[in-house]
């Protein structure tokens, strides 16, 4: 029995069964076991493959071995592995892994795969087999405790694990039926994961249960380690007994904070004066967090690990403990606070003609809210203090000057509206509203942007190492995608690819806005832009049209700001030049860590919001709503409602023909109909999964046939169960 004979036979006869091979090789019945062993050996050597339910064999060719992170799709029926590449500019290549070849890999694991191709394939399509799991993404699972056939069961929240059976080995005492729990994998064999239930998270009836579960599985605890709590004991609750240490005393100045209604950590305050010569003095005063958070202390190590505060619908997971973020570092009204102050003189054209930086002490005179200040600007509803009114009106004058200056530089403001979740007192979503940005929000943003620019210019001019906030110009692929969408919308523009700068891009955007200025266009524009990140290499900030930019104004909630504060204190204020080498050595790593932390935080915020959106839409199942197509993919299209929430219309629910996506992913076509990006459609809400944050919709005209298909499946499943039970 020669393995080469089998391979030669399969070269001529693809998809052959065991019996076909046995007949040709004249294998007797008693040698079937040997043939099975030989076929399995050839499978292990990746020379042939057994084709699923057909139980046929095909010849395959090994292309290469690849390592990368595996991502599940379609409820774990298949997955993709993106090849690991040290070159960030290299094209990212993903390989398809059928579900039967996952080999105990779980979503997010780092794996090694063999990329293969069918010998008889007429195209270059490949597939892959997971050879081994190099490292687990996690050995923990979130699920709900239930009952199955009289035994306690674990149902994972992620749909990716429908093909896996979970067996509970041990259970914490406090866990009860219908609780959302954390399980830790003990073993994974024969498609069965044995796990210990190690923590009760919440009862599934708790409106915040799934939000809490997500923060647990992402390992984002609200509480701080004991060593951090021990460090906090040394930090005072007030600065009454502290020495001023050459600080500029600004406690008599009319300085205020302007924040959201629910804000508790106030890290920036402002004051504005209009000078007799027509210039303005802008003071921006930032909490002096670095005075309390010493480098390499347990508190600093934990802050770097967190990187940023996470503002979730359930509350804040702070970067710093509340004793600092809401206490000694928060610029609360009528309390003395240490700050770092930027005092800038700005002329009527918006140019900064002077900028100085100080260690300072302030006392905020008012805790103002955006809503209340907007009432002053929009409705002339004045405050009782005439000095406050005058200062705020002068601040508005200056904000308009700064905004006009930025627009001339190429800054583009799309005024993108975000959905805001409204909760009842128990944490259940009762509404989702879109709140437009007011003038006071823009005022604070413009003042903070100007401050960040001036700090970056100051440090760069002195060749002091620090962390920039950078934003690359759009790459050619994204510009091509942008042009494809505009073409579908019937908008013609000319883009000089050799001259992509903020000003030229702004002209194009303004021209487009004259033609069409709905929210969809804003979404298209955002997709064109790169992600901003932290770096020690200054390439400018494209979106803000800034040559020099850093983050300085939010050290309570962002670690890079804290580092920039330290650099100012140690190298500028304390004149310790020995620190320059130290910061040159560490800043690249700090920048990379914080770019990653920021993206993780944004993803967690989006994902937790999605859970509450789905909770809200559960009450809308069966309702007809108007929506706009904002994205087209191979498996369907995403639509967006007026409240800015999105739902998936799966391609399988489209009832008038077989649909295909065009190569630019701008149209979904059948012989009967074509859907384009930006089209308005009428849909019915078909489902909302609050455990995964998914909302499904069906075109209103297809809803009847969709319900019929569901009935057929239910009847089919019911008949199958009756047959199995012998009824």
Automatic annotation (TrEMBL):
Family that this chain belongs to: Belongs to the RNR ribonuclease family. RNase R subfamily.
InterPro entries: NA-bd_OB-fold (IPR012340), RNase_II/R (IPR001900), RNase_II/RNase_R (IPR004476), RNase_R (IPR011805), RNR_Ribonuclease (IPR050180), S1_domain (IPR003029)
Name of the protein described by the UniProt record: Ribonuclease R
Residues annotated as domain S1 motif: 622-700
Subcellular locations according to the entry: Cytoplasm
Entries under PROSITE patterns matching the protein: S1
Keywords: Cytoplasm, Exonuclease, Hydrolase, Nuclease, RNA-binding
Main subcellular location of this protein, as a coarse class: cytoplasm
Major enzyme class: hydrolase
């Amino acid at each position: 029995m020669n393995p080469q004979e089998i391979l030669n036979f399969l070269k001529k006869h693809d998809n052959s069964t065991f019996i076909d091979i046995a007949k040709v090789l004249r294998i007797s019945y008693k040698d079937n076991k040997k043939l099975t062993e030989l076929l399995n050996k050839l499978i292990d050597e990746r020379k042939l493959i057994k084709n699923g339910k057909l139980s046929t064999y095909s010849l395959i060719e090994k292309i290469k071995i690849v390592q990368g992170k595996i991502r599940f799709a379609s409820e774990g029926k298949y997955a993709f592995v993106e090849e690991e590449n040290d070159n960030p500019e290299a094209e990212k290549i993903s390989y398809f892994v059928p579900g039967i070849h996952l080999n105990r890999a779980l979503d997010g694991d780092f794996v090694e795969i063999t990329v293969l191709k069918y010998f008889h394939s007429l195209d270059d399509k490949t597939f892959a087999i997971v050879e081994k799991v190099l490292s687990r993404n996690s050995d923990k699972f979130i699920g709900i405790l239930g009952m199955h056939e009289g035994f306690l069961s674990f149902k994972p929240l992620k749909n990716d694990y429908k093909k896996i059976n979970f067996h509970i080995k041990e259970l914490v005492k406090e866990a009860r039926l219908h609780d959302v729990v954390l399980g830790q994998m003990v073993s994974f064999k024969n498609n069965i994961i044995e796990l210990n239930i190690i923590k009760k998270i919440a009862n599934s009836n708790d409106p915040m249960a799934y939000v809490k579960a997500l923060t647990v599985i992402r390992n984002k605890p609200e509480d701080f380690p004991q060593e951090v709590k021990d460090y906090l004991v040394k930090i005072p609750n007030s600065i009454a007994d502290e020495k001023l240490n050459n600080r500029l005393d600004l406690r008599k100045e009319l300085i205020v904070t302007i924040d959201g209604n629910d804000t508790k950590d106030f890290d920036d305050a402002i004051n504005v004066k209009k000078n007799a010569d027509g210039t303005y003095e802008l003071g921006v005063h930032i909490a002096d967090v670095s005075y309390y958070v010493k480098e390499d202390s347990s508190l600093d190590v934990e802050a770097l690990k967190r990187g940023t505060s996470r503002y979730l619908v359930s509350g804040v997971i702070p970067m710093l403990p509340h004793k600092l973020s809401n206490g000694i570092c928060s610029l609360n009204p009528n309390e003395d606070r240490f700050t770092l102050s930027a005092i800038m003189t700005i002329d009527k054209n918006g140019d900064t003609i002077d900028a100085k930086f100080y260690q300072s002490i302030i006392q905020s005179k008012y805790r103002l809210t955006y809503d209340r200040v907007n009432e002053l600007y929009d409705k002339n509803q004045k405050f009782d203090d005439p000095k406050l009114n005058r200062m705020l009106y002068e601040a508005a004058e200056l904000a308009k000057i700064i905004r006009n200056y930025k627009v001339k530089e190429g800054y583009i403001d799309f005024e993108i509206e975000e959905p805001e979740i409204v909760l009842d007192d128990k944490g259940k979503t009762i509404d989702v509203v879109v709140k437009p940005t007011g003038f006071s929000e823009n005022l604070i943003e413009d003042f903070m942007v100007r401050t960040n620019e001036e700090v970056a210019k100051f440090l760069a001019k002195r060749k002091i190492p620090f962390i920039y906030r950078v934003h690359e110009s759009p790459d050619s692929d994204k510009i091509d995608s942008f042009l494809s969408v505009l073409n579908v919308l019937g908008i013609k523009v000319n883009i000089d690819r050799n001259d992509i700068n903020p000003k030229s891009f702004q002209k194009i955007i303004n021209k487009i806005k004259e033609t069409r200025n709905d929210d969809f266009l804003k979404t298209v524009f955002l997709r064109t832009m790169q992600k901003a990140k932290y770096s020690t290499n200054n390439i400018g900030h494209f979106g803000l049209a800034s040559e020099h930019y850093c983050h300085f104004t939010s050290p309570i909630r962002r670690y890079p700001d804290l580092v920039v504060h330290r650099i100012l204190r140690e190298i500028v204020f304390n004149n310790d030049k020995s620190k320059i080498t130290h910061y040159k050595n560490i800043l690249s790593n700090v920048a990379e860590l914080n770019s990653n932390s920021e993206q993780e935080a944004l993803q967690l915020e989006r994902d937790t919001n999605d859970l509450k959106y789905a909770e809200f839409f559960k009450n809308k199942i069966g309702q007809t709503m108007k929506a706009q197509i904002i994205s087209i993919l191979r498996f369907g299209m995403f639509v967006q409602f007026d409240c800015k929430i999105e739902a998936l219309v799966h391609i399988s629910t489209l009832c008038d023909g077989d649909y295909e996506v065009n190569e630019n992913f701008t149209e979904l076509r059948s012989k009967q109909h074509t859907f384009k990006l930006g089209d308005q459609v009428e849909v019915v809400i078909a489902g909302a999964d609050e455990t995964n944050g998914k909302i499904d919709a069906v075109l209103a005209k297809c809803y009847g046939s969709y319900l019929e298909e569901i009935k057929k499946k239910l009847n089919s499943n019911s008949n199958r169960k009756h047959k199995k039970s012998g009824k």
